[in-house]
Amino acid sequence: MDPNKFQSASEFVSSLSKKEARDLLMKWRDDNARNSELVREIWQSLNLSSYLGDEKWVVLEQVCLAAMDLQDRPLVESCLERLKDKFPNSGRVKRLRMLAKLELNQRYDDALIKYNELIANDEANSMLHKRKIAILIAAKKTTAAIRALCEYLKSFMNDHEAWIQLAELYIQEQEYSKAAFCVEELILSNPHNHLYHERYAEIQYTINTPESLELARAYFSQAVRLKPTSLRALYGLILTSNHLANSSKNSKNKKYQRLSQWAVQQISMIYKNTIGDNAEQQDLLESIDSTLEELSIAN
Could you tell me which residue ranges the EMC2 TPR-like domain spans (predicted)? Predict the structure, then answer.
């Protein structure tokens, strides 16, 4: 199941059976994907502990790492306590406790020293690399985090989460062309994910050259083809088409106008279908229609 098709983590998790949740947690472990918010939501909402059998211990470790990402101290401490009770002499659990203590207390420099030591002894361990990158980001060492991600992706090129993270860091640094390259890699590996097309279009819209605006229009259009109800893509299509129409002095002007007006109509239909005959929401619908009309280009 695709979490991107749902409005929130809780909505997605509520749609899962316990078997689906267990399989998903296993897949994320195999793929080295953290998905921290979803991992926490699954653990807290579905009461998997009794269902998992002995697998619950590796899931507890996964939940603990997710909680560390989210700075959820109570959940980290709960996971560690259960792991310690089950494995009182485990070096792995002791190491996890030590790292959690450093991270939760924001002793980032000490944590980085320890992660560097661990990586030196186990360079193929992707989890260690990603924990180090998470520490660099938390410590606001953006340049170092970018450098570490670039090195990491040389060995783990299929890690979609890492490409997304690198793109967002480049955006923070206003290096939009490099961010676009990262999202291009994601689109190549998963051309049917509308979110990647939307993100690429947004980056091109931000670059704001005639060529990049045409790319933005094309990728917003493709995102709408992949998911016709995507408001994000439709609004992006309106803004991009308006921009192109206002700067165009040739026959394409009418095409951009029609595209913008079509997107406005699609958004209006989506809201009307959502609100339906609810009389209490009609004022809201009229307000939405008025706003959409302002966005539309007058002929």
Answer: 89-212
